[in-house]
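Lab manual, section 2.4: Encoding a predicted structure.

Procedure: take the sequence of the chain (115 residues), apply the prediction step described in section 2.3, and record the output as structure tokens. A sample record is shown.
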Amino acid sequence: MPQKLFVGNLPHEVTDTELNEFVSSAGFQATSAVVVRDKMTGQSRGFGFVELADGEDLQRAIAGLNGQTLQGRRLTVNEARPQRTDFGGRPHGGGGGGGAGRHRGRPGGGRRRDY
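Recorded output:
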């Protein structure tokens, strides 16, 4: 089973390659490093995931990377939790859409009149 790290408080300018190089420079071998980006803007969301190579000790990597500084920001490193899924096995997405007009408890949505 792959060992995956969550890396939080990443600078918004960091790329996947830079994250991978940072982990390597700390003495750990990663098979992949991904900075999570906003779907609409493409800007970093400030966190990412690093998958460690087979044979790497997860707890040693957490101890070695947590609290380290990357581009002036102190990183938070933990074991990544499994991705939540819905009952169909699909990743658990965000919330649903907004509702129709809100009537504030008055039938017809008319203006409130104080006589």
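Check your result against the sample. The mean pLDDT is 86.
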